[in-house]
Design goal:
- The protein is mostly helical and 136 residues long.
- It is 67% helix and 0% strand.
- The protein has helices at residues 3-10, 29-47, 52-64, 73-81, 85-96, 100-122, 129-135.
- Helix 2 (29-47) packs across helix 6 (100-122) and helix 5 (85-96) crosses helix 6.
- It is globular and about 40 Å long.
């Protein structure tokens, strides 16, 4: 399973693949925002927030198959971006032309779907941090 395609599909296909090097015309703000949030969230997931504690948090969420809807948006962003969550949200908002609050929500949705993809991929398997990193 390709995690980018999985998350993109779950969130409405915000990232469009094109053979034409010119950008798609008239993308909606939602697609532009999600199109920016998905790769940013997956990059944060790949880096596990840059902290040892968050590497363990992602692995624990995958191992326990935790209900991600019970985890706050703020906690998802902490896991993905550690203390850089505000800076990432501001960057995504600036790129997409949206509010920081909307960007934070989009990042959280994309991050939650990324973790859900990991849960699905590793379901029923004993998983280590290294296996998650290799998969990502």
């Amino acid at each position: 399973m390709n995690i980018l395609e999985y998350v993109n599909g779950k969130l409405g296909g915000a990232i469009r693949h094109s053979e034409d090097p010119t950008p798609a015309i008239a993308a909606s703000e939602e697609h532009t925002l999600m199109g920016a949030a998905i790769p940013a969230a997956l990059a944060g997931l790949y880096l596990h927030g840059g902290s040892i504690q968050e590497v363990g948090a992602v692995t624990q969420l995958v191992k326990t198959q935790s209900d991600l809807s019970a985890i706050t948006d703020t906690r998802i962003l902490e896991i993905l971006f550690d203390d850089k969550q505000d800076a990432v949200a501001r960057s995504v908002a600036a790129y997409a032309g949206s509010s920081v609050e909307d960007a934070s929500r989009a990042l959280s949705r994309a991050g939650r779907e990324g973790i859900r993809a990991l849960q699905e991929h590793f379901k029923g398997k004993e998983v280590t941090e290294k296996e998650i990193s290799v998969y990502l």
